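ARCHIVE RECORD
Type: protein–small molecule complex
Small molecule: S-adenosylmethionine
Source of inputs: curated submission
Record status: active
Notes field left blank by submitter.
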Amino acid sequence: MDKLQNKWFKESCEMWPGATFTFEVKEVLQSGKSQYQNIDVFDTTSLGRVLVLDDIIQCTQKDEFSYQEMISFLPLCCHKNPEKVLIVGGGDGGVAREVAKHPKVKEIVQVEIDEKVIEVSKKYLQFMAVGFDSEKLELHVGDGFEFMKNHSQEFDVIITDSSDPIGPAVNLFLENYFSLMKSALKPNGIVCSQAGTIWNDLDLVTSTLGYCRNQFPAAAYAYTTVPAYPSGPIGFVIGSLDKNIKFDQPTLVFSREDEKAMNLKYYNSDIHKAAFVLPTFVKYRLA
Ligand code: SAM
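STRUCTURE (tokenized, with ligand):
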């Protein structure tokens, strides 16, 4: 396999030239091209199983819970009654796994563009793909951008768990997408989108937050830590139709018993509040 040098996989992406993350591979479980992208799954010596799309790491067994819990519970716990949730992307199943745990969520609709990612995740990444077994879930294969055009005032929360803005996800970072999401939300609805890292993609973070601010009366950026992502932190843009919302004050606070019952390993109400506290160079850039 060309992308492996002496069993080491080296991530490469035009979005962060000149630096790379690399890991040692024990076994190549899957390697091949779908209609949309290259899909690789590796078993590794230190990160467990790793999903890679078009040579970019999507999730590792060691740290995926940080991303999946935060992109799910930040918006869900800001909403007073998140009964119906839409997930765009998320083909590994990890976000569906987390959203299904929320006690107030009754229905989850998910639209993932690449059926092959779902198939491969069910075969090799069952620790995330278990999310597809939820009875709350209705799964569609299709483009999230197109899907959004046909839905109006339907969802309480929309979570966009997309890959980076190259390839099939490019439309999910446009202002028009935030406008379509706004139309698809019920009153007081909330959106939360993967929005890049503060170290490598501050321009992307700034533009994505700007689009969200243009469409929503309240918007903010929050972040979590995922060691296998370029530079470590990864962030989310979160927008609400409720102009008085306080994003850093969760409306639902889980007890320690809740956290254990829900198998939460990263999210708690303190880290929810802290996720919105930004370093100085970011705080004033995004002000
Ligand atoms: N946690 C990951 C990250 O930030 O690196 C994202 C993981 S998830 C596997 C991303 C998914 O978004 C992929 O399965 C990809 O196929 C899907 N996706 C990309 N563009 C999409 C679109 N336009 N509509 C729906 N799903 C899309």
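CURATOR ANNOTATION: The mean pLDDT is 96.
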